[in-house]
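To the team - pyridoxal-5'-phosphate complex, inputs and output below.
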Amino acid sequence: MNFMSTVSSVQSDVNALERIQALESQYLLQNYARYPLLLERGKGCYVFDSSGKRYLDFIAGIGVNALGHAHPRLVKTIRAQAGKLLHTSNLYYNEFQGPLAERLAKISGLERTFFCNSGAEAMEGALKMMRSHGRKVSTEKYEVVSLNNSFHGRTLGALSITGQEKYRRDFEPLLPGARFVPANDIVALEQVVGDRTCGIVIEWIQGEGGIFPMNIEYARKARELADRHDALLVFDEIQCGVGRVGKYFAYQLADPVVLPDIMVAAKPLAVGIPLGVIVANERAAKSIGTAMHGSTFGGGPLACSAALEFLNILEGLLPHIQNVGEYFRGKLEALRSKFSFIKEVRGRGLMAGVDLTIPGKQIVLDAMHEGLLINCTHDTVLRFLPPYIVTEKEIDRAVRILTKVLKTAAKRGDAS
Ligand SMILES: Cc1ncc(COP(=O)(O)O)c(C=O)c1O
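Output:
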């Protein structure tokens, strides 16, 4: 079967899913365990599968589709830019990197940006900055302290500081000098951070780890220790940042704010076009000089123009995210009082986790069957990352579906 006939068969064939599954099982690396769903198009907070069935999308491409699907302003911006200039490389200037970096500086409280294409790539760059910063002081200053249960990406460097054995074990040995400490344990942090530390890396809300927020006092202590030992403090805002919690960045939840030396962000930044950033203060930015780092695709005009338009829209959405986020968590808390197998509801803004005493996998499948897309992280945590434009009505609908599938789980005796 040639490529064109494959494409037309997707459009006309009700068995499109099976056909695509067969092709993928033959030709793709078998690294993903996908849900049996072939998504074809989206509109607002809804996506449609190949049979035309509609789903309320409360996972939004794992936190990427912050404006839902086919947002008219994004479509307009991307169409216009695609017809003008797609790629320039970093040999030349394009009209968007400067304005976007200025915007990021204003909203983050930091100063200089490097553009790349994904979260892991941003974290790799941040690791190089930590290493290069430490090396200026001493060749012994190369340790990076990060937290148990963290997730920072799947490249070798990012994996090395990811505090979950299951992601790391097949690839060891990884980078030397990674030190792990339990989250929110100030004493442990004080014991590990020292003069050999070149960086401390923290997710303000652990995402893949099961939606665990950081204590503000803990983050302040990390800031103090980084300063005391001349290390760089890095906040990984890849999942919890760029509006997700109702602030531009999750570290802005603290008042007064705890500023990092480096912040990395990606996922929703260009709302579906790959874009990652490292944003640094002057002190950290000095660690990278000419030709020490780079990217062919990073900061291309398509991604940067989309990001600028997204940030224009996001400014007005932040209060909405806070309001609907609270509304949603209130509803989830109400479910907790109904179902004894809900242990805890965690999160901020539109990043929510429902921690169960039972596995979440079947509940996710049942929800999908009923027209709601969510996922499960850490086996027992139902994770919700809905688009920022979600309405209370859509939340009500999601909660109705959730109630139904939780009732089914209770009847089925999942908890026993
Ligand atoms: C906190 C955090 N850091 C890093 C990453 C890696 O990002 P990417 O998948 O874009 O490489 C993720 C992805 O889920 C993440 O949640």
